[in-house]
Amino acid sequence: MSTEKIKNSLKTGSDKDGYFGEYGGIAAGENLMNNLEELKKAFEDAIKDKKFLDEFAYYCKHWIGRPSPIYFAERITKKIGGAKIYFKQEHLNHTGSHKPTNTLFQVLLAKRMGKKKIICESGAGQHWSAAAATAAKFGMPIVGVMGKIDCARVNQNLIKAKHYGGKLKIVEGSLREAITAAIKEWSNNPDYYYLIGSTCSSSPFVDIVRYAQSIIGKEMREQFMELEGKLPNEIIACAGAGSNFTGSIFEFLDEPEIKKVVVEAEETAALTNGTKGIQQGMVTKFLQSDDGSKSLGGSSLGAGIMYYGISPQLAHLKDIGAIEASAASDKELLETYKLVAQNEGIGISFEPAAAVTEALKRAKGKPKDYIICATACGRVEKDLDVIERLIGKDFE
Amino acid sequence: MSTEKIKNSLKTGSDKDGYFGEYGGIAAGENLMNNLEELKKAFEDAIKDKKFLDEFAYYCKHWIGRPSPIYFAERITKKIGGAKIYFKQEHLNHTGSHKPTNTLFQVLLAKRMGKKKIICESGAGQHWSAAAATAAKFGMPIVGVMGKIDCARVNQNLIKAKHYGGKLKIVEGSLREAITAAIKEWSNNPDYYYLIGSTCSSSPFVDIVRYAQSIIGKEMREQFMELEGKLPNEIIACAGAGSNFTGSIFEFLDEPEIKKVVVEAEETAALTNGTKGIQQGMVTKFLQSDDGSKSLGGSSLGAGIMYYGISPQLAHLKDIGAIEASAASDKELLETYKLVAQNEGIGISFEPAAAVTEALKRAKGKPKDYIICATACGRVEKDLDVIERLIGKDFE
Amino acid sequence: MIAYFVACYPNFEKSLEIIKKSIDAGVNICEIGFPTQEASGEGIVIKNAHDHCLQRNVTLKDTIKLAKAVRNYNNDVGIILMGYMSNIFKYPIKNFVSDLASVDVDGCLIVDAPHELREENELRNLMNKKNLSLIKLVAPTTKEERLKKLSNLFSGWVYSLNFSGISGSKSANLEDVKNMIKKIKTYTDLPVCSGFGIKTPGDAKKMTQTGCDGVIVGSSIVEYIGKNLNDTKLPKNVGNIIKTFVEELK
Amino acid sequence: MIAYFVACYPNFEKSLEIIKKSIDAGVNICEIGFPTQEASGEGIVIKNAHDHCLQRNVTLKDTIKLAKAVRNYNNDVGIILMGYMSNIFKYPIKNFVSDLASVDVDGCLIVDAPHELREENELRNLMNKKNLSLIKLVAPTTKEERLKKLSNLFSGWVYSLNFSGISGSKSANLEDVKNMIKKIKTYTDLPVCSGFGIKTPGDAKKMTQTGCDGVIVGSSIVEYIGKNLNDTKLPKNVGNIIKTFVEELK
Ligand SMILES: Cc1ncc(COP(=O)(O)O)c(C=O)c1O
Ligand SMILES: Cc1ncc(COP(=O)(O)O)c(C=O)c1O
Questions:
Q1: CA of A28 to nearest chain D CA: how many angstroms apart?
Q2: Which residue's alpha carbon is at the smallest distance from atom 1 of ligand 1?
Q3: CB atoms < 10 A from the CB of C182, how many?
Q4: Contact between chains at D59 and A291 (C-beta distance less than 8 A)
Q5: D211 reaches A (C-beta below 8 A)
Q6: Labelling C96: which of A341, B57, C196, D5 has CA 20 to 30 A away?
Q7: What CA–CA distance (Å, rounded) separates C13 from C22?
Q8: Is the domain C2-249 a CATH 3.40.50.300 member?
Q9: Are both A30-60+98-210 and A67-96+213-395 of the same fold?
């Protein structure tokens, strides 16, 4: 997908078995193997089809509102004293996060494959509302699965998705259980298109989602060259399973001088604290019991980054030192939200607050011409009530 | 502001006394006259200053995320059968409406004037949250005034503005009372900058807000020429006092072949049902009692288009036949919201639903190459709970 | 002394009675405000009085009727109407001026009608023809150059605003007022009266040291009326309050 | 007849007793599932049984212990473990295979380990060396070309899925199953057993008409156990149920 071929390029996607180094692969039931194969072929076909890519670009521009701008967070930069802090404003996309870029790509793919119905999972409900919006736009019926724990706290997304025409199935648990349940639905209905929301599960999903989201980094390159005449020194983004982060850094994978930092929720930091395992259709790092029968990990305010696994590609990239990993606590998310709202007039959701938290730490004391770009991948609406309840009095 | 000078151009702004034909002017207390004069000079100065305009353009792009794209509403177009219906996607702007373009322009103006504090009014809370966000971005304290009736139904905007650091004063009534109360605050503090939210009140406010918002139409021209190779046949936008509509059509005022249709809330359709009067700092059409002592008009679901007056410029343009006026009912707003959500995957707020309602009516039966562009000036979040309460069951 | 009354507050009869007693107490000019929802220059006290009257459908017509009754009671006292353009514009202007003249009122004062407003020009011209005064205001924020322009339009007397803001909201700074009166007087020989922020006879007394030719008392009288709406001795008591002002001003 | 049991459901002793009684009733192969949270191929019945065992901390080790006890009870019955890669990978794979061999189990079947998964290859190679069968599945969605590839990997017998979906969710279409068995048999001489959607002895009987060499009954047995957890006669009753299946299949 890169125009120049680089020897040992990291931008090649997964290998022929769907692995990134020792992670990835396909750990799916036999009844899904045909679907995954069909999907892989359809995907590889589609991205060679100029008409398809043009269509994707057209709707990215007109429906989603891409490119999302980069934004110099001037007052925070001054406050911290050090590197220039930029936001990649993914929250300005239609539906308020980076998610619709992926749902758009995959719904177009589903249409191209002649699929008639869509199924998906969701954690924070951002993928669900984005998927439902996209399905509505293209007149496709859609079924979503979410965990009860998540539903309670992202109610607005559920209402929106319902208004778009999506039908929601609620299961016990959180994103993990939602993915498992969605996969089961798909097993039961192999003629559906399974629209996964992040860079996880079996190959080729990781490659598909990465392909769609890597537009984030591509835009960044162009925008930074135009505005600053150079690329950022560090790119920071949060990760649940990793689509936002992967999309932000993929473009720069062959440029090791650009630091790439992924930030997880402290409570579910699979990259930092997980162990290798095979679950959820893939080989990757998980927070799991020693015997692999149970998932571990606590609860984060960042519903979208509360996942006990991580993209296999990111597990690989961390192993080979191509990316760094960090984590943010609930307390930090709240503090960072407040700082950004009060100083930049931007209400970010909890997930990007994790990335900005890390950016603030790293900016301190850095030279003035050092650039750190944090991807602001969500707007606050879905979290507003929780914030108001927890720290509303701080603003009085 | 237009590059070619056209004889009898309608794009000249108000005359030397601040009038548009027989409407407009200054009906303010003596203690505000100096402020208004100072403001007028500062405005005229600023828009001759390339550096200032560049700064405005820079933040429009990077902070607000302009240009907002145009979007071909393909499925609705097919459903209606007739003209191509386009949306100008102002809801993709930061804070979710057209409002921040104006608040950005005026906060920059306030800074340029050396003002240290900002005051504003708001109806739907969209202007309030946009103004508070902008003030936060530039580190300016801000006080807002809203009517109790409006506060109750746009709670999310109030929380957001609070988080940005805005201090809200709540008064009895609705937008009318909020404007009166804000003007009073300003009278008491003439050293503040009064950041008005729409094309109303005394000169030069109408020209200032129109200047900022006319970027909407400018973008439309470029975008339609690029995408369709021609301009739309009709431009439709809703109006409370009229900033969104004026911004959408100003660019095309000297092109009478382009129809321009303003849509008010049926309950407060000042342009259609109002009579000439002098209130709220201006001469214009109002819904008022015969003796001019009381305002009239009912309540609309569209909090942002529930204003008993109208921009004096629009009163003038309607009188001379340069624009047409229409209105939409609550029932229509709900139906249109539903249609757009389910067919285009876009959740618009009640205000733009008024414009789209009119677009649907006019599209029917028109030739296939006839283009109608409706400005989608707000996203649904602030109205979501009300919609869910009123017609939530329709989506089940 | 100039006293401001809200027309027909709390009703026509009592309002008339209050004004009569005030005249008896020595008021020189009665400023009679006609109610409007707009009231953008008014603080909460006067605004509430306006709302009270609006609920009872008091109109500008009623106000003129009241002014007529006042004139019938006393031929010498100054009477001016005070209010907002909205009502006058709808009256409409021409009829307003002829009605004013016919009830022998001295003039009027419009809060929201600067001379930049064409409708103000229309009103002023018609009033001039009928020898009625359109009282102009000067604010602390009024610049010298503008004051000069305004001075050509002064008629009757000049209303000097003691502070920028709405009625009843602040207290005046004596030194500032003094300088302002002085400045105005370099441009006009007409009487200059000082208004806003004068709440007690003591305030009024102090104000005379500023060189002004009269003081205007508004909110504090309206407030007293508002607090004693049902008191049968209300007119008499207002008269007594006015008397305490008049005494201090002697 | 092949019966699926969740290991240690409801507990080790009762589970062992249930399996013993089932063997007595004529089961040919015991499929013993080891519990996991993942269970992405399982319907609500089996999922609940897994959760029950996970709450009681049943591990793959316990499952192997159970298998050992079953083998001790009966030397002829087929025993295979069934489950997901997660637990085996963590066991880890090498130890899993040697433990399997040491308790004299016949093989295992992994729901989420297609031959494309490298870890499956590792497991399969090790098992082959120990003469253990890694049972492969064929689904209705499995294409001819893939079936051909799979047939080279078949070991022990073939698990033919009667429908695409999760366990316990649907009923099988007899005609489809028939065609599928036929297709599989063109590629292999190993026994082909038919699983999913077989709930009653009647279902099992019908299934024999498809040409399969055995039927697998899962959810309906697990469901019965789940509904009678505290019944002291539970093992005996399960045995009786198995007997009704076995009778029909004679
Ligand atoms: C706003 C937001 N940001 C980030 C994420 C994390 O997802 P991913 O790791 O795929 O980027 C989510 C997931 O729901 C989200 O809603
Ligand atoms: C979303 C939205 N659209 C439209 C309007 C109407 O304002 P105007 O007439 O100034 O465009 C408002 C005002 O609050 C609004 O919030």
A1: 4
A2: A378
A3: 12
A4: yes
A5: no
A6: C196
A7: 14
A8: no
A9: yes
Confidence of residue C164 (pLDDT cuts 50, 70, 90): confident
Q: Does domain B67-96+213-395 have CATH number 3.40.50.1100?
A: yes
What is the identity of the amino acid at B375?
A: T
Residues 6+ apart with CB under 8 A from D18: D5, D225, D234, D235, D238, D239
Search chain D and give the residue with CA nearest A24. Answer: D117
User: Would you call C52 an interface residue with chain B, using a CB distance cutoff of 8 Å?
Assistant: no
Mutation pick from D134, D148, D166 vs chain A, by most beta carbons of A within 10 Å, is D166
pLDDT, mean of residues B185-203: 94
Task: Report residue B4's pLDDT band, with 50, 70 and 90 as the boundaries.
Answer: low
Yes or no, beta carbons of B19 and C89 under 8 Å apart:
no
CB contact under 8 A, B139 and A343: yes
In contact, A295 and A177? CB cutoff 8 Å: no
What is the per-residue pLDDT across B139-179, written as a single tens digit (0 to 9) for each? 999 999 999 988 988 889 999 999 999 999 999 988 999 99
- Distance, CA B239 to ligand 2 centroid (Å)? 6
Asked whether the beta carbons of residue A345 and residue B135 sit closer than 8 angstroms, the reply is yes
Q: Return the structure tokens found at D199.
A: 């709930």
What per-residue confidence (pLDDT) applies to B5? 60
Ligand nearest to the CA of B179: 2
Which bound ligand lies closest to the C-alpha atom of A157? 1
Tens-place pLDDT, residues A240-273: 999 999 999 999 999 999 999 999 999 999 999 9
Distances in whole angstroms, Cα of residue C101 to Cα of each of A351, C105, C128 = 72, 6, 11
Considering every ligand atom, which ligand is closest to the CA of A123? 1
What are φ and ψ of residue B264, in 5° steps?
Answer: -105, 170
Contacts with A90 from chain B: Cβ below 8 Å: none
Q: How far is the CA of A377 from the centre of ligand 1 (A)?
A: 7
Burial of C237 (0-12, 13-18, 19+ CB in 10 A): middle
Going from N- to C-terminal start, the domains of chain B cover 30-60+98-210, 67-96+213-395
Burial class (CB in 10 A: 0-12, 13-18, 19+), B338: middle
Residue of B88, B157, B198, B213 to test ligand 2 pocket, by largest number of atoms within 8 Å of CB: B198
The count of CB pairs under 8 A between chains B and C is 126
Torsion of Cα atoms, A385 then A387 then A391 then A396, to 10°: -60
Model ipTM?
0.95
Count the residues in chain C: 250
Distance in angstroms between the alpha carbons of the first and the last residue of chain A: 51
pLDDT (tens digit, 9 = 90+) per residue, C77-115? 999 999 999 999 999 999 999 999 999 999 999 999 999
Q: Which of C89, C118, C161 sits opposite B30 (nearest CB)?
A: C161
Cβ(B145)–Cβ(B171) below 8 Å: yes
CB B126 within 8 A of CB B276: no
The neighbouring-strand residues paired with A373 are A86, A235
Q: What is the fold of A30-60+98-210?
A: Rossmann fold (3.40.50)
Which of B33, B276, B295 lies nearest to residue C146, judging by beta carbons?
B33
Is pLDDT above 60 for C36? yes
- In this complex, the residue of C41, C119, C138 whose CB is nearest that of residue B187 is C41
